[in-house]
């Protein structure tokens, strides 16, 4: 806390009170306004992306990206004792994040950011295809590893709770791996061309409910230019592992996003490839088999269930996208 007055001086802010919310976040009560002072995790490479993102937001009037106050010297940040600080308005939380209105607002806002910043480039097909062909082979190997684990557990006269859970969930995970391979094949087929049109947008890079407050998207320290589906995947991978009966609303309300920033069929395949991949699930089994004694049986089961929920969520997404965006309308066929 002793360094905070020095940093505030760079902004010309006289604080009446300062609360340490986390070791990196401070709530600063000024004479007329409340500020959020952040000791960032920015380094030289990410700092450049962060500055560019803020300038882009300002030039394109992206008002839902939290503004950053300038120092007295007109800088976006202040560097002190090898740490980079920046200051924003303090934004209070408003509304439950499992409500339909919150999800609709989330989709509308992130879709608008993606739509306004979207650029399309043509890139060689080989630049994309090689890594996905390798990934498809990796998924095939995972299926064999999973089967080996299950056969090993079934040989035990008495299976542990963890082993019993793996065997019970085997068919869902095996189905998922088959679905991933199918999606990779469809993705490569849809993009089978010498040059592929590939979209880049401003991506948050660390999207989760903690970084969405009252209609504003905060903490752009990991921002990058990438395909928009990666923002969505990051969000769902972060949020879905914990049990929440309202998670289905994210699927049912997805049309809200698509009406503003419609994803192509290859992008939808890409979205599903990332969501369906059960690599972390099988990694958890591997850690158990290799006797990682840093975790208890309860911790292993919690981790497995956490990853299993993500897999089930991916399956639900796959069924939804197949129904809503992939089925051919027979009325469009010539008789």
Quick rundown:
By secondary structure, this protein is of the alpha+beta class.
How would you sum up this structure, described in words?
This protein is of the alpha+beta class. The chain has eleven helices and ten strands. The strands form three sheets. It has a five-stranded antiparallel sheet, covered by helices on one side. Strands 6-7-10 form a three-stranded antiparallel sheet. Helix 6 packs parallel to helix 9. Mean pLDDT is 91; it is low at 329-335.
Features:
single chain; 335 residues; alpha+beta; 3-stranded antiparallel beta sheet; disordered C terminus
**Rg, nearest Å:** 23 Å
Number of helices: 11
3D shape: globular
Question: Helix fraction?
Answer: 40-55%
Computed structural class: alpha+beta
Enumerate the strands of the largest sheet in spatial order, edge to edge or round the barrel.
1-2-3-5-4
Mean pLDDT: 91
């Amino acid at each position: 806390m002793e360094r905070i007055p020095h940093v505030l001086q760079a902004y010309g802010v006289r604080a009446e009170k300062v609360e340490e919310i986390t070791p990196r976040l401070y709530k600063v009560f000024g004479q007329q306004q409340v500020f959020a002072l952040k000791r960032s995790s920015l380094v030289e490479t990410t700092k450049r992306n962060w500055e560019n993102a803020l300038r882009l937001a300002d030039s394109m009037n992206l008002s839902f990206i939290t503004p950053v106050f300038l120092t007295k010297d007109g800088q976006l940040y202040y560097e002190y004792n090898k740490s980079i600080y920046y200051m924003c308005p303090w934004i209070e939380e408003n509304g439950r994040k499992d409500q339909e209105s919150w999800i609709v607002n989330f989709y509308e806002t992130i879709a608008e950011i993606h739509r306004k910043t979207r650029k399309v480039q043509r890139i060689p097909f080989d630049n994309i295809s090689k890594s996905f062909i390798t990934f498809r082979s990796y998924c095939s190997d995972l299926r064999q590893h999973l089967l080996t684990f299950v056969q090993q557990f079934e040989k035990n006269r008495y299976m542990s709770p963890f082993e019993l859970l793996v065997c019970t969930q085997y068919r869902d995970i095996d189905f998922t791996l088959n679905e991933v391979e199918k999606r990779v094949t469809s993705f490569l087929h849809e993009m089978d061309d010498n040059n592929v049109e590939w979209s880049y947008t401003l991506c948050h890079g660390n999207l989760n409910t903690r970084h969405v407050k009252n209609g504003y998207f905060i903490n752009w320290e990991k921002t990058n230019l990438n395909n928009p589906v990666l923002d969505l995947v990051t969000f769902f991978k972060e949020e879905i592992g914990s049990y929440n009966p309202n998670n289905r609303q994210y699927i049912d309300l997805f049309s809200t996003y698509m009406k503003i920033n419609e994803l192509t069929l290859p992008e939808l395949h890409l979205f599903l490839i990332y969501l369906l991949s059960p690599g972390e699930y099988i990694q958890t089994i591997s850690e158990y088999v290799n006797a990682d004694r840093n975790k208890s049986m309860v911790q292993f089961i919690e981790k497995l269930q956490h990853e299993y929920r993500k897999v089930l969520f991916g399956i639900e997404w796959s069924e939804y996208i197949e129904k809503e965006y992939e089925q051919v309308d027979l009325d469009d066929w010539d008789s």
